[in-house]
């Protein structure tokens, strides 16, 4: 990942390939934002006018490159839009800063070092700029380092290597901590993005589990892996039922971070379908090209546990990665089969493409056995949630209204788009089955909510639980924006990490 430093240099004296400044939409045209004073001075105070001449308005997403005047050591100035200028005495929103920094880092791919002179009034603002820059500078290197792509144009596409944050106070503890937190969170988000972007012939349940073991060694986490033999013996009928059609057998990974003074324990459960073909209920062409992303929930859980550990949070966090490949074959589960889930409930599989809830059902029962204070599952679970909320917003369902609200507020705070969704009890009836406790599919209308209701059946009595359906935002197919690249996004990680921080601080019941 790119390196990030807090620099005491001014934008005029920093030796770099570019200086990044902010431009906002003022009432009478673009205005240069705080942090850019030295740059404006080098333009004889006429920078806003120059930007306007070049067509800049200050709108979000805008990036305007201009040659630096002689007063600067850097040859290029990059002005990025921050949207509407805040009212007098108000600060810029953190997400606007995060996105602008991300746009700048993306625009500067191929250059070595840039100084970011965006408005960073306080440590939180510095955290947002640092996070946005580090997330925006991400690029997936196929095969580790360009190996899988002959014509990599490596130099041109290489991410911005060095980010110097100007205006933040390097000797101030709060700023230093904000930068360190941004580095850790961005590294973990980028770890998850890499896993999601890996082709499914390289990342299968076994190699995913191995990655968890490697990280466990590196960061002192306890990692236990149940392989197909252990899963069969243990009665994990959901995970086995989904994985049995594939030559790459399933795994259940438990990855645990513990703090000696922790008072609370969180369990995070991730859907880890390394490839979802649909199984015997095969997906048609046009619906299966991006299904390597179906392990994004497990990647998010994995990354969040590692982040909690690296941040040394005073809370226990246990991650459960339910890993399987959903393939059709002579040994695959058929529509009509009845599976006996971990814990004993039976499920009639009406559609083998509704596989996420099967692997998660097992994992939720297993996670419940340890009686955590709360469980949050993360899953690319339903196309219905994408229809409901679009490509950038995940749905939050829960068995506890206050917990759902907390998660919604946390998501908003960390700059992740999310929305609370209900679990209407009447949708449960359509999942009744004549041959099992229930079927894995109900009515089509409200399919995302029905999936949530299904999962709820596997949560232990009295345990607070929430379900994040990230099917929309987990994988970004259109043009990059802000700090969001094409491909894996790392959706929900920042929300999980903040939940762990707040739980550690005792802010949640
Ligand atoms: N992995 C898919 C959901 C999905 C869709 C993820 C689009 C990302 C983008 C899930 O396993 C699935 O196939 N769900 C079915 C359920 C249905 C058969 C009840 C769906 O949503 O169509
Ligand atoms: Mn599916
Ligand atoms: Zn799936």
Automatic annotation (TrEMBL):
Domain Cytosol aminopeptidase per the UniProt entry, residue ranges: 351-358
Catalysis performed (reactions): Release of an N-terminal amino acid, preferentially leucine, but not glutamic or aspartic acids; Release of an N-terminal amino acid, Xaa-|-Yaa-, in which Xaa is preferably Leu, but may be other amino acids including Pro although not Arg or Lys, and Yaa may be Pro. Amino acid amides and methyl esters are also readily hydrolyzed, but rates on arylamides are exceedingly low
Cofactor notes: Binds 2 manganese ions per subunit.
Catalytic residue list: 283, 357
Pfam families: Peptidase_M17, Peptidase_M17_N
Residues bound to Mn(2+) 2: 271, 276, 294, 355
GO biological process, one term: proteolysis
GO cellular component: cytoplasm
Annotated InterPro entries: Leucine_aapep/pepB (IPR011356), Macro_dom-like (IPR043472), Peptidase_M17_C (IPR000819), Peptidase_M17_leu_NH2_pept (IPR023042), Peptidase_M17_N (IPR008283)
Residues the record lists as binding Mn(2+) 1: 276, 353, 355
Cofactor: Mn(2+)
An example Gene Ontology molecular-function term: manganese ion binding
Signal sequence range: none
EC number: 3.4.11.1, 3.4.11.10
Record key words, sorted: Aminopeptidase, Cytoplasm, Hydrolase, Manganese, Metal-binding, Protease
Compartment(s) where it occurs, according to its Swiss-Prot or TrEMBL record: Cytoplasm
Purpose of the protein: Presumably involved in the processing and regular turnover of intracellular proteins. Catalyzes the removal of unsubstituted N-terminal amino acids from various peptides.
Family: Belongs to the peptidase M17 family.
Protein name: Probable cytosol aminopeptidase
Species whose genome carries this gene: Streptosporangium nondiastaticum
């Amino acid at each position: 990942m790119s390196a990030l430093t807090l620099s005491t240099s001014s934008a005029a004296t920093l030796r770099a390939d570019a200086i990044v400044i902010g431009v906002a939409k003022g009432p009478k045209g673009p205005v240069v934002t705080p942090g850019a004073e030295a740059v404006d001075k080098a333009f004889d105070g006429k920078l806003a006018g120059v930007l306007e001449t070049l067509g800049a308005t200050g709108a979000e997403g805008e990036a305007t490159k201009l040659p630096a005047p002689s007063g600067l050591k850097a040859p290029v100035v990059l002005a990025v839009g921050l949207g509407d200028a805040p009212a007098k005495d108000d600060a810029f929103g953190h997400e606007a800063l995060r996105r602008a920094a991300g746009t700048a880092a993306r625009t500067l791919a191929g250059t070595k070092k840039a100084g970011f002179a965006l408005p960073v009034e306080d440590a939180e603002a510095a955290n947002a700029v640092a996070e946005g820059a580090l997330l925006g500078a991400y690029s997936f290197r196929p095969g580790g380092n360009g190996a899988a792509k002959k014509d990599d144009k490596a130099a041109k596409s290489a991410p911005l290597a060095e980010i110097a944050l100007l205006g933040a106070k390097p000797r101030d503890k709060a700023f230093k901590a904000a930068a360190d937190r941004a580095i850790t969170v961005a590294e973990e988000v980028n770890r998850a993005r890499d896993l999601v972007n890996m082709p499914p012939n390289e990342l299968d349940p076994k190699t995913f589990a191995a990655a968890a073991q490697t990280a466990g060694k590196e960061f002192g986490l306890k990692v236990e892996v149940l392989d197909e033999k252990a899963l069969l013996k243990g009665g994990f009928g959901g995970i086995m039922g989904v994985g049995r059609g594939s030559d790459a057998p399933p795994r259940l990974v438990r990855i645990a971070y513990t703090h000696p003074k922790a008072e609370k324990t969180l369990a995070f459960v991730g859907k880890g379908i390394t490839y979802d073909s649909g199984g015997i209920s095969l997906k048609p062409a046009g619906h299966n090209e991006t299904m390597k992303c179906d392990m994004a929930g497990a990647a998010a859980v994995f990354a969040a546990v590692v982040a909690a550990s690296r941040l040394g949070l005073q809370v226990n966090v246990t991650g459960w990665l339910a890993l399987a490949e959903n393939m059709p074959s002579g040994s695959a589960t058929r529509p009509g089969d009845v599976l006996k889930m971990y814990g004993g409930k039976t499920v009639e599989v009406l559609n083998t493409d509704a596989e996420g809830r099967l692997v998660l059902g097992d994992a939720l029962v297993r996670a419940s056995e340890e009686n955590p204070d709360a469980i949050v599952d993360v899953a690319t679970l339903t196309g219905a949630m994408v229809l409901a909320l679009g490509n950038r917003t995940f749905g939050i369902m829960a068995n506890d209204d206050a917990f759902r609200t907390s998660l919604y507020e946390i998501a908003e705070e960390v700059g992740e788009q999310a929305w609370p969704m209900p679990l209407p009890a009447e949708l449960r009836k359509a999942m009744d089955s004549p041959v099992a406790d229930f079927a894995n599919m109900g009515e089509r209308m409200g399919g995302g909510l029905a999936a949530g209701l299904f999962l709820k059946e596997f949560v232990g009595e009295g345990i607070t639980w929430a379900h994040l359906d990230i099917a929309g935002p987990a994988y970004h197919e259109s043009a990059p924006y802000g700090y969001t690249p094409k491909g894996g996004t790392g959706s929900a990680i920042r929300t999980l990490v903040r939940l762990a921080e707040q739980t550690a601080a005792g802010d949640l019941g």
